[in-house]
Every structure is written in C-alpha cells, then in structure tokens.
Amino acid sequence: MTKTVAIIYYNRYCYSSILAEHIGKGVEKQGANAVTYDIAHAGNSMISLNEADAIIFGSPTYFGSVAAEVKGFMDATVDIWNNKQWNNKVAAGFTHSSALSGDKLATLMTMFVFAAQHGMIWAGLDLRSCEKVKDYGLELNQPGSWIGLMAQSPKDGEKKPSDLETAEYFGTRIAKVTQKVGYYE
C-alpha cells in the first residue's frame, strides 16, 4: 500500500514552497505520494491531513518561532487533538531564516511539541553536519540540525543548492520512516 506524506507550510516569500517542492521530490523518489498545502488554504485540507500517513510541517523562523499563521493553524487543530485523529502518525518539520542561525531550533521545537501533543511520532534528520551522501553532489545538512530540516533563506533570490538537496534527502528519509513505522490507530 502506497503511503501519503502531506507537507503543509506557510509561505510568505516563496522559499517555504521551494523547500516543500524539494521535500516532495524526495518523498516521491522513495515511492510514496507527496501532497503539499499552503497553510493559507489549510481549512480545505484538514480532511486530507487526517488521511495522510505522515505530516511534515514547515514555517519560516520569525523572531525565534513559527510564523503567526502557523501558530493559528496549530490552534485550529483542537478538534483533531480532542479526537486523537493524528495519534501515531509520523511527523517532521522544516524551517528557514535569512540568518545562518536565526534561532531555527526554537521553531523546530515548537513544531515538535505540537506534534507530541497530538501523539505523533517525530522523525528528524539523520545526517551529520556537512555529510557527503551517495547520489547527492554536495555536503548536506550544513546547519547541523538533527531535529528537522533547517535552511538559510536566499538573499536576492539566490538559492543554496546544498539546502535544496538536503530537503530532497529529508523527504526521502521521512517517506522511509513512514513506510517502516506505518500508521496504527
């Protein structure tokens, strides 16, 4: 049975959508279905999120936390929480900021706590900082994050190829974890 990985993110200046696209490529490379949603349209996607085997949350880091729109989405899941609809689903997260550090860890921790409160199974990134991986041309995970995907937002539209390759690898990893863990009600 083919697994479905939903990627829901907030996108103000389009880098979240670019990362989500590359994560989705990695998911599909592993043989799972990737479905992406912008949080602006989250109300229409809640049923699909409930049916997904895994959910990857994405937000830019603003002032050391998730964007207000992401927090609003989280707060709107109280009925899902009450009914344990995401219990035992695989969860993961990604973020980016213009600064190399930008306090991105705090953003990923917010997503992690949110997923834990929903009873989800968190999957992080399994790469050492600047690790060379077969089939990828660049050193991946340059920020050195294990809890989730961190990337540096491009300045002047310049994308960081290592971040994009890390995003694809991350999608492949989450799909693999989802296929191994499965979903148990």
UniProtKB/TrEMBL annotation:
Keyword Flavoprotein: yes
InterPro entries, sorted: Flavodoxin/NO_synth, Flavoprotein-like_sf, FMN_Rdtase-like_dom
Keywords, comma-separated and alphabetical: Flavoprotein, FMN
Domain Flavodoxin-like per the UniProt entry, residue ranges: 5-175
Xref: Gene3D superfamilies: 3.40.50.360
Pfam families: FMN_red
UniProt protein name: NADPH-dependent FMN reductase
